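ugh ok fine here u go
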Amino acid sequence: MNPLLKESVVARAYQADPTAADAEYGGQFREPVTAYLSRELIERAVEPGITERPPLPGVQYVAFVDCSSGAGTDSFACAIGHKARDKERDVVVIDTIIAQRPPFSPLDVIAALAEHLKRWRIHEVMGDGYGKPFISIFAKSGISYVTTPLDTSAIYLHALPAWTSNSVAMLANPLAIDQTANLRRKIGSGGKETVDHPRSQHDDLANVVAGVIYRLTPIEQTMGDFGGFGCIVRPREYPAYADGGNDTMSAWWRAHGPGPGYLAPAESGIHGPGAPLKSRASGNALW
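structure:
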């Protein structure tokens, strides 16, 4: 009913978060508890029969871990992934998911995980604050542990648009799929949203998959108060494999350079770091 509201704005909102868009633009009241993602949407991102992808030369990988003491019921989990290009859009590719069920010794698990990470040329992992006691253990194995500035719930919400826009290439890992499908999205007081697993269930694998998505997608950052109003901005990030001939891109590169974490522009005919993704319509594997 607002003639000044562009249809493209509404369309983007529904693509990023259908549930929130229904409440904002569709006149639908929010349920206090809803599913985080439908199983159908998650399974749409799964590459059938692909349970792990091998490390490829020239690809920059990232890892996210969910630490555990080994004395309770939580697993020690890790996911590895990278960003690729598929038909002119960015895709977060989940390459492998590792989990050690309790009981176990964290020292042994971290030592074994460090050797595995080095195969992927990874020397830094990210995790939540629970992993702080293990920082020195990771360091002894040659791996730096970085604490994420967001809590687990915020990471799930951050990863949501990647799932809903079909920008995730997920592995055929039944447990990770089940845990992600079982997550619940809750509306608390003041309209604050949280995402968590049901009581007596686990989200170790869902957590690390969402963490990889978080690491490979632009991050919203709060930038202080201006005139008493909090301001949230999304940094403008250009992929390393974007077309260097584009005027806007060229100007940005001239002003800023590649910066940390960026690769040089890809060779002609290669869209993204590493081999290009194949069409999903063809039924082929990613590589």
